[in-house]
């Protein structure tokens, strides 16, 4: 497992203080450059090769009436990703990220978690492996996203299982649930929590699903082995990755949270993780869209870190 290089981070910190600006004046851009230096184990971090992975899966929980949109939309959106017509295509193009979409057995939804475990241990293992295998070892940064109708309900269940609380604490509108659909989401999460009490990462993924959540976990673990820093997306992506903290509280140390989603559970989740999102733009889309916008901020941080003159170079004093 690649660790944070304290030496590279210390040298990046010293460099920040030698650049032609008042120390600290670039605020969190400085912290982000130092974070990248430490995890990339390189004094001058780089973002030449940004990889974006969007994992897609389908969910049996849609049988509980938790969605305004039908499950068919998952496959239609995968087609849209391949045709370049989705938000994530535009944002990756402008942010300079190479997008790969990984559909995971879309014709075999996971089981309804109110009736039994969503996935078998083998299904969890193979989805985690698919996530790990999709990571490009040459990437300088990895952006993660998801697509799966019904997965805001899955995310609420995963967050509750990982951090406590019930459906009411974690359920939000997702794609736009209100009234009876929102009540059905809260009931479904409550029923799932009453049925399953997993206490580790794989058990939690098996209980509630889904394949794209397990793939996100596999990709986060693989990125850590490779020393590739990660940008997580919104509520659904963060809830998936956060399941890893059940086995290891430090599992997400190499991850940034790209943005705070408008989905209300995300703020609670970010607080539970003790993290600070890069952006807060009232986005609530998923697909990795908030991670892609946050990459543009990282590019600014790295450009200043690597391109600015030091006081000595600029001939000050
Ligand atoms: C057209 C469309 C495109 C999307 N892109 C991401 N999501 C987002 O919405 C879903 C989660 O919300 P829920 O639990 O309410 O289904 C996920 O697929 C997520 O990525 C979309 C949803 C729709 C309808
Ligand atoms: O924050 C998210 O990940 C999100 C919120 C609503 C719908 N889809 C995704």
From TrEMBL:
Gene3D superfamilies listed in its UniProt record: 1.10.1610.10, 3.40.50.10210
Segments of this protein annotated with the region Disordered: 1-24
Keyword set includes Transferase: yes
GO molecular function ontology, one term from the record: nicotinate-nucleotide-dimethylbenzimidazole phosphoribosyltransferase activity
The organism of origin for this protein: Paracoccus tegillarcae
Name of the protein in question: Nicotinate-nucleotide--dimethylbenzimidazole phosphoribosyltransferase
Active site: 287
Gene label: cobT
Taxonomic classification: Bacteria, Pseudomonadati, Pseudomonadota, Alphaproteobacteria, Rhodobacterales
Chain coiled-coil ranges: none
HAMAP family (alphabetical): CobT
Enzyme Commission (EC) number: 2.4.2.21
